[in-house]
UniProtKB/TrEMBL annotation:
Its EC number is 3.5.3.23. The gene is astB. The lineage of its organism: Bacteria, Pseudomonadati, Myxococcota, Myxococcia, Myxococcales. Residues 17-38 are annotated as: Disordered. Keywords: Arginine metabolism, Hydrolase. GO terms for molecular function: N-succinylarginine dihydrolase activity. Gene3D superfamilies: Succinylarginine dihydrolase. This is N-succinylarginine dihydrolase. Pfam families: AstB (PF04996). It comes from Pyxidicoccus fallax.
Length: 440
């Protein structure tokens, strides 16, 4: 079984809409000009780097934005151009919400269980309904279509429908999911959550908790996971109030290694004890206290929103955002992780600032999918990273993406046309078939 990182290709409307309360970067950069071309190229460079480490790499496509489907559903009628013009005039906020390129953060696209851990021996994928935030909830339908196109072979893959879209089952995907495993022990799944729909659990006071316990429990059932191998830790309410809207802002794990902030989960000590019991003595965890790494620094510089990657030689490397290098407490923490008795032997810092300014680090930009050789071969879409695919995607970005987008540019009816032209071409590059509604 090999891990493939499916990175989200940043979409042509990448912009700073200030859309996510509780996501401090989104709030503080709202209204600034964005650089879609640079953002997409930064993402491609990260794919090149991870692939160069010898790790499996693939790509997921952006979504059509502004979403005409969403605007039509909200009562805007007429030609495509008329819809944009009218939304710009009457409901600028709705235009902003339906223009977000947020599908780039593919950690939120779905939750995935590898075939080694599921009762029927298939890979299970559930697109996240993202129902907590409207600009993200509109991703689910297209994500579902894209995943069905890529993971089409039903002998190997089951793509479930997104969980029912009421706030009771609010699901944010793999950003709240961690799979851990040690040799000789079955994989353990952490399915975290921030609030309960029906139980009375103390939650955050300042910022919204997104995922529900009931959503996480449903994912464990749908994916046919062994109940003994699943834990449902609660995101620490103080962590959420400090800006950790998803688990992956304060914790990241890979195989026998987990690093976390003490405000990632309620009772992290009890959680680590259970993990040691399930995973045995090879399991390693490194905890940052608030004294060592103030929550403010963790949220600003995202050391936990790193990719922890197993390299071909069996050691692990961390791919962290450059902001973590620039923040002394975060850098020192990551250096401690390498210095201690852990599988991690190197830290690499990458520039994904365009994404970071909306609260998405290296880990947010990728969905992890574990595939056997047979499963890998069953995928016929051209989504696996190669230098040739890189060149054609980079050329495609340079052909179609604007250099700068200012908030008022979202009101330009031309933008929707440009995006559709670009995405239509992309589905041919990736051999995806017609996955977008404007193609039907
Ligand atoms: N995993 C990282 C997700 C970041 C994402 N940001 C946003 O949607 C910000 C969009 C904006 O404000 O333009 C979110 O909060 O869900």
């Amino acid at each position: 079984m090999r891990e493939y990182n499916f990175d989200g290709l940043v979409g042509p409307t990448h912009n700073y809409g200030g859309l996510s309360p509780g996501n401090l970067a989104s709030q503080s950069h709202g209204g600034e000009p964005s650089h879609p071309r640079e953002a997409a190229l930064q993402g491609l460079e990260k794919m090149r780097f991870v692939s160069g480490l010898g790790v499996g790499q693939a790509v997921l496509p952006p979504q059509p934005r502004p979403s005409l489907r969403a605007l039509r559903a909200l009562g805007f009628t007429g030609t495509d151009e008329e819809i944009i013009t009218r939304a710009a005039r009457e409901a600028e906020h709705l235009l902003r919400l339906t223009s977000s390129a947020s599908a780039m953060w593919t950690a939120n696209a779905a939750t995935v269980a590898p075939s080694s851990d599921t009762a029927d021996g298939r890979v299970h994928l559930t697109p996240a309904n993202l129902s907590q935030m409207y600009h993200r909830a509109i991703e689910a339908e297209t994500t579902y279509a894209v995943l069905r196109a890529i993971f089409a072979d039903t002998r190997h893959f089951t793509v479930h429908a997104p969980l029912p879209g009421s706030s009771h089952f609010a699901d944010e995907g793999a950003a709240n999911h961690t799979r851990l495993a040690t040799p000789g022990h079955a994989g353990v799944h952490l399915l975290a959550w921030g609030r309960s729909a029906w139980q009375d659990v103390p939650g955050p006071k300042r910022f919204p908790a997104r995922q529900t316990l009931e959503a996480s429990q449903s994912l464990a059932r749908l994916h046919q996971l062994d109940a003994k191998q699943v834990l449902f830790p609660q995101q620490h309410p103080e962590g959420i109030d400090a800006g950790a809207f998803h688990t992956d802002v304060m914790a990241v794990g890979n195989e026998r290694f987990l690093m976390l902030h003490e405000l990632a989960f309620v009772d992290h000590a009890g959680l680590l004890q259970m993990l040691r019991e399930k995973l045995g003595p090879e399991f390693r965890a490194v905890v940052a206290t608030s004294a060592e790494l103030p929550p403010k620094d963790a949220v600003k510089s995202y050391p936990f929103n790193s990719q922890v990657l197993t390299l071909p030689d069996g050691t692990m490397a961390i791919v962290a955002p450059i902001e973590a290098q620039e923040t002394p407490a975060a850098r020192q923490f990551l250096e401690r992780v390498v210095a201690e008795d852990t599988p991690v032997k190197a830290v690499h810092y990458l520039d994904v600032r365009q994404s970071m300014n909306n609260g998405g680090g290296p880990a947010c930009l990728r969905q992890r999918v574990w595939l056997t050789d047979a499963e890998r071969k069953a995928i016929t879409a051209d989504v696996f990273y190669t230098p040739a695919l890189h060149d054609s995607l980079a050329a495609w970005v340079r052909r179609h993406y604007r250099e700068v987008l200012r908030p008022k540019d979202l009101q330009d009816p031309q933008l929707v046309r440009e995006t559709m032209t670009a995405l239509d071409e992309l589905t041919r590059i990736l051999k995806l078939g017609n996955v977008y509604d404007f193609q039907h």
